[in-house]
Specification:
By secondary structure, this protein is α+β, with helices and mostly antiparallel strands. Helix content is about 25%, strand content about 35%. The protein has a single domain, classed as Dimeric alpha+beta barrel (Alpha-Beta Plaits), CATH 3.30.70.1060. Strand 2 and strand 3 form a beta hairpin. The longest helix is centred in the N-terminal third of the chain and has 12 residues. The two termini are about 30 Å apart. The mean pLDDT is about 90.
Length: about 190
């Protein structure tokens, strides 16, 4: 079963993010999940340097295992994160971020569109136009782990800039503007540097 885990940074934790020992502990922990990982990486402030959160999409045996993944993650134990969201994820592209062959020089973005706890919105997956498909790094539905009720969509894509992101998604027919909550994050691939 695949899970989409988004962890939002707590205020004032920049010094923890800069701690080399904690960073190595985080990477070593993630190394244990290499084979299960579909996508990973930090979300960023508009300066594209300051981390604001962290994305991990990976296969785990159960919702309990996904919760344990979050609880044991070194940044979480150190207090970097203020909150976490865990959804079951249906990987509609059927690939990992490492299989993405995008254009060099364009920024990457993570879009999380969901019901925000309101009544679920029917999520219809639509055919993706080829011009958008070539930009997609990650695309799938988000569901509540316990009930399996689909409550959102997650998309990671490459685009010239943030202004182009929603236009690309709207023109691509994904209708993300129908969701009560649409988060657009600057994002980059994670891993050892």
């Amino acid at each position: 079963m695949d899970f989409f885990v988004y962890s939002r940074d707590a205020q004032g934790t920049e010094a923890l993010r800069d701690d080399e020992a904690l960073l190595e502990e985080h990477w070593s922990y993630m190394d244990r999940f290499t084979e299960a990982m579909i996508a990973r990486g930090p979300t960023l402030a508009p300066d594209r340097e300051t981390p604001t959160g962290s994305l991990h999409v990976l296969g785990l045996p159960s919702p309990a295992a996904a919760s344990e993944f979050v609880e044991r993650e070194p940044n979480n134990r150190a207090g970097v994160y203020a909150e976490h969201r865990i959804w079951a994820f249906d990987n509609l592209l059927g690939r990992t971020m490492w299989e993405f062959t995008g254009q060099a020089g364009e920024h990457r973005f993570l879009i999380i569109a969901h019901s925000g706890g309101a009544a679920a919105i029917p999520v219809a997956t639509v055919p993706i136009p080829p011009e958008l498909r070539g930009r997609l790094i990650l695309y799938g539905t988000l569901a509540e782990p316990a009930s399996g009720e689909v409550t959102g969509v997650a998309v990671a894509l490459q685009a010239p800039g943030k202004d182009a992101v929603m236009a690309l998604l709207r023109d691509g027919g994904m209708r993300l503007d129908e969701f009560p909550v649409v988060e657009v994050h600057d994002w980059e691939f994670g891993g050892r540097r």
